[in-house]
Design a protein that fits this description.
The chain is α/β, with parallel strands linked by helices. The protein has two domains: about 45-75 and about 360-465, Aspartate Aminotransferase, domain 1 (Alpha-Beta Complex); about 85-355, Aspartate Aminotransferase, domain 2. About 35% of the residues lie in helices and about 15% in strands. It has 15 helices and 15 strands. The chain has helices at about 10-15, 20-30, 70, 80-95, 105-115, 130-145, 170, 175-180, 215-225, 250-260, 315-320, 340-355, 360-375, 410-420, 450-465; strands spanning about 45-50, 55, 60-65, 120-125, 155-160, 190-195, 230-235, 265-270, 295, 310, 385-390, 395, 425, 425-430, 440. The strands form three sheets. It has a seven-stranded mixed sheet, sandwiched between helices. The longest helix is centred in the first third of the chain and has 19 residues, at about 130-145. The radius of gyration is 23 Å and the shape is globular. It binds pyridoxal-5'-phosphate (PLP). Pyridoxal-5'-phosphate (PLP) binds near residues 71, 163 and 166. Pyridoxal-5'-phosphate binds near residues 133 and 166.
Length: about 475
């Protein structure tokens, strides 16, 4: 490939020989979440271009990316020149200063975020979803110690099947055993409670005759742990990597009531659900719930730049305000890359695009169309359940619809291989649960059209037809 760069020094970076790049990739790049032994027989995928929902690999093969960059994050689609432009302008003007000081796009983006979530008036910046969650834990722990001297009201309750990130705090709060295997010991003070997936109800019940026990059980856990030791309940509004699980409508109001009763904060991890993924700007807006802390990343700048946010209510922020002579009472936390001004500019432009192009509305409309189509797959012998909200959907594959025994990993691997061979990239539960990585997931960019959805649905249908008994 040859580019005509005005600045010839850039040629070295942007021009390449495909075979050499593949060789060097194998030699030097340690890919995420990959068993590298496979690269002895197949080449790694190397993505070189993108536009809208379409991407091209280094071998010239084109794909419809139905997972927005593999991990549900390029919400506005590829090839957005206006984001590149604002980042370029900002980097030229002022690329960086530590978050101890302000900068213009950081202020403007915070203003936008607080207008979107007016109950959360304080915005803390960092640069990954995991880090945004770590900030939330630190806010809970420190504010609790400031507010209740002598008490240790600091435990974080998290939900089985939820994923919250790769750092030790976030992993200690993750309810997916395969993501944790071999990495322990984990941090003390994190306690798991049951998931909210109706298809595999923890209590063996059927909605709506279930008393919403999956939410009510949290009260039992708080009592068991001791209300004076529990600082926060931490959840994804809709479980993402754990299998696309939207809790039933009653779930969050019940959880909220329990939290209020025991003076426990509620943290919503909007890292995946935020910025239109579920058909509203934030996933928790589908529910009657009022979280104290909300974290976000991925779609915040559609991953054109690394950017994450931890938003908190004024009441929480005010706990940290005190006489400056108390040298330890303020929030003693920093994140170097929480000061990258280009990322805030990208966040501003990304949000403008989502609003101006009505991408939440498109996500809701096209998401419903996608879900309606996928629901028809329930006639296939291997489709146990279909779930979703907005442009975010999961198809749970089973060997037997009565026992709900999950298909093997080798089997779902073949199904996904077939879909990929048709030119559509979909995702799956990946190293999440022991013998239960059986869910195909979909999260196309929010600009998806009916024709894009038809193409995705057709490719999945072809594969299911081939592999159903
Ligand atoms: C719900 C959720 N929270 C947090 C994270 C961690 O984000 P990051 O990979 O940016 O650290 C992820 C990543 O997939 C996620 O799905």
């Amino acid at each position: 490939m040859a580019l005509n760069n005005k600045n010839e020094h850039l040629d070295d970076l942007f021009n390449y020989d495909a075979a050499e790049m593949i060789k060097l990739d194998k030699e030097n790049v340690w890919h995420h979440l990959m068993q590298h032994k496979v690269f002895e027989t197949v080449d790694p995928m190397i993505i070189v271009e993108g536009n809208g929902l379409r991407i091209k690999d280094i071998k010239g093969r084109e794909y419809l990316d139905a997972v927005s960059g593999g991990v549900w994050c390029v919400n506005v689609g590829y090839g957005r020149e206006s984001i590149a432009e604002v980042v370029y302008q900002q980097l030229k003007t002022m690329p960086y200063y530590a978050g101890t000081a302000g900068n213009i796009p950081a202020i403007k983006f915070a203003q936008k975020l607080t207008s979107l979530l007016p109950r959360l008036q304080k915005v803390y910046y960092s640069n990954s979803g995991s880090e945004a969650n770590e900030k939330a834990f630190k806010m809970v722990r420190q504010s609790s110690r400031l507010k209740y001297p002598g008490k240790e009201k600091i435990k974080i309750l998290y939900r089985n099947k939820d994923y919250h990130g790769t750092t030790f705090g976030a992993l200690s709060a993750t309810g997916q055993e395969e993501r944790r295997t071999d990495f322990g010991p984990f941090l003390p003070g994190f306690v798991e409670f049951p998931h909210a997936c109706c298809y595999r109800c923890h209590f063996g019940k059927t909605y709506p005759d279930c008393n919403i026990d999956c939410a009510r059980v949290v009260e039992d856990v708080i009592i068991q742990e001791g209300p004076d030791t529990v600082g926060a309940v931490f959840v994804e509004p809709i479980t993402a990597g754990g299998g696309i699980i939207p809790p039933v409508p009653e779930y969050y109001p019940i959880l909220q009531e329990i939290c209020k009763k025991y003076d426990v904060l509620m943290i919503m991890d909007e890292v995946v659900c935020g910025f239109g993924r579920t058909g509203k700007m934030f996933g928790h807006e589908h529910y009657d719930v009022d979280p104290d802390i909300v974290t976000m990343a991925k779609g915040t700048a559609s991953s054109y730049m690394p950017l994450s946010v931890t938003m908190a209510k004024n009441e929480l922020f005010d706990v940290f305000k005190s006489d400056p002579s108390d040298k330890l009472a303020y929030f003693r936390d920093i994140s170097t890359y929480g000061g990258c001004a280009g990322a805030f500019a990208a966040g501003c432009e990304n949000t403008r695009i989502i609003e101006d192009e009505k991408l939440c509305e498109n996500s809701a409309k096209m998401g419903q169309y996608l879900l309606d189509n996928l629901k028809e797959f329930q006639t296939f012998s291997i489709v146990g359940d279909v779930r979703g909200m907005g442009l975010f959907a999961g198809i749970e594959l089973v060997e037997d619809k009565v026992t709900k025994a999950p298909v093997s990993e080798a089997f779902i691997g073949q199904v996904i291989g077939d879909i990929t061979a048709q030119g559509v990239l979909v995702g799956r539960t990946n190293r999440s649960f022991t013998n239960q990585n059986n869910i195909i997931n979909l999260a196309p960019a929010l600009v998806a059209t009916k024709a894009d959805i038809d193409e995705i649905v057709q490719a999945i249908k072809n594969a299911l037809e081939k592999f159903s008994k």
